[in-house]
Write a structure and sequence with these properties.
heterodimer; A: alpha+beta; Ribosomal Protein S5, domain 2; 2 helices; globular; B: alpha/beta; 2-enoyl-CoA Hydratase, Chain A, domain 1; seven-stranded mixed β-sheet; 7 strands; 42% helix; 13% strand
Chain lengths: 103, 296
């Protein structure tokens, strides 16, 4: 297992509901737990992945994710069993769409 | 998408029960994860592969659980089992109309060894305690992983089992039998044989299940509702258990020598047993209802 943490600043959008989970921890899949949390405006992402050595790709996918959604005061936790970057992005988008505040 | 087989545990909870009615105990945000998997450097799930809580079924209060087959085949670890037991004990205190278990499991999570075994035995005891309190327990089986091992026993401890043709119910799974007894005894890659031997239709014919439904969430919901509405809480009595034991003994004497499920179906009086696997659920039930063991 490898544990990775990314923290992004400068987001502008909060979550409407406290927490939700999407996805299942299975081969090539992952679960994403997304929660509103007082983080001084930051978006924090904790990853536990069974695929060791892919930190650079995770960082690129997470940076894209933050650029896409601009979340603030959000904590995201991921349990991963070797999902591809496209599946990771899909699950993250599903998680946000499930509980993002409607403007 | 209406397939029960294809749905996740949480999708099943959302759609089998009244919309928005599921209230979860120990949700993923509580992060009560397996203490064992981390030590083995294996991935954990925030709900340890099972969601438990309360819900409503056509307005009736029920307690519910759904195992997630996608996480380690729905296998029961220490936390997973403790969540089931906690929900069942709470049911005794709160006295809902019924407990509905959406089972999908390969049985004990072997990574957790004795802790998993103890957890499954505690679930069995808790199911029987709920029934002894006069609350019916209904099992729904229709996931891709079937219901095997200790959870197969748990299913048979309930008042009623609703199963789909795609659902499977047994003790040892096909690969386990092949590994232990050889491919001559059981070829686990022969999918038609696997379903003839463990699938919903065979279980229905043997009287191990009360209801056979098509693979649809709506069909499972309707069958669960009928069981909850009509289920007279069956008291656990010594005479009832002895009667069931006598039935099982007679079944073993009558069919214990049979090598192939289709022979058994023929012996029950099915005219064209080779045609049974191809029938839709309704047509199948209509053809065999009068022939099956344990029927009414």
């Amino acid at each position: 297992m490898e544990h990775l943490t990314y923290i992004f600043q400068g987001g502008t959008r909060r979550l409407a509901r406290p927490a939700d989970v999407v996805g299942v921890v299975g081969s090539g899949n992952l679960e994403v737990l997304i929660e509103a949390a007082p983080l001084d405006g930051a978006c924090s992402i904790d990853i536990a992945t069974a695929a060791v050595g892919f930190g650079a790709i995770w960082e690129a996918v997470m940076t894209d994710f933050h650029a896409r959604w601009q979340l603030m005061d959000v904590r995201i936790a991921i349990n991963d069993m070797g999902a591809t970057p496209a599946v990771v992005s899909l699950r993250l988008d599903q998680a946000v769409e499930t509980i993002l505040e409607t403007p | 998408m209406n397939s029960y087989l294809e749905a996740t545990a949480r999708e099943r909870l959302a759609r089998v029960f009244d919309p928005g009615s599921f209230q979860e105990f120990l949700p993923p945000s509580a992060r009560v994860v397996s203490p064992h998997l981390g030590q083995l450097n294996a991935p954990v799930a925030f709900d340890d592969g099972v969601a438990v809580g309360r819900a409503r079924l056509d307005g009736r209060p029920v307690f519910v659980a759904a195992q997630e087959g996608g996480f380690m085949g729905g296998a029961v670890g220490e936390v997973h089992g403790a969540k089931l037991v906690g929900m069942l004990r709470r049911a005794i205190a709160d006295a809902p109309d019924a407990v509905v278990l959406l089972l999908e499991s390969g049985g004990v999570r072997l990574h957790e060894a004795n802790a998993g075994l103890i957890a499954v035995s505690e679930v069995m005891r808790a199911v029987l305690d709920v029934r002894a309190a006069g609350i019916p327990v209904i099992a729904l089986i229709g996931g891709a992983n079937g219901c095997f091992g200790g959870m197969g026993i748990v299913a048979r401890c309930t008042n009623a089992i609703v199963i789909s043709e795609e659902g499977r119910l047994a003790m040892s799974g096909p690969e386990v039998i092949e590994t232990a007894s050889g491919v001559e005894e059981f070829d686990a890659r022969d999918r038609a044989l696997v379903w003839r031997t463990t699938g919903g239709k065979h279980r229905y014919l043997l009287g191990d299940c009360q209801v056979l439904v098509a693979d649809s969430v709506a069909a499972f919901r309707a069958a669960a509702l009928a069981q909850v509405a009509g289920a007279t809480a069956v008291a656990l009595t010594l005479s009832a258990l002895e009667r069931e034991q006598a039935q099982l003994t007679a079944r073993l004497e009558r069919f214990g020598h049979v090598r192939e499920p289709m022979e058994l179906w023929r012996a029950l009086g099915v005219a064209a047993p080779e045609a049974l696997p191809l029938l839709e659920a309704d047509a199948f039930v209509a053809q065999v209802d009068a022939l099956r063991l344990g029927g009414h």
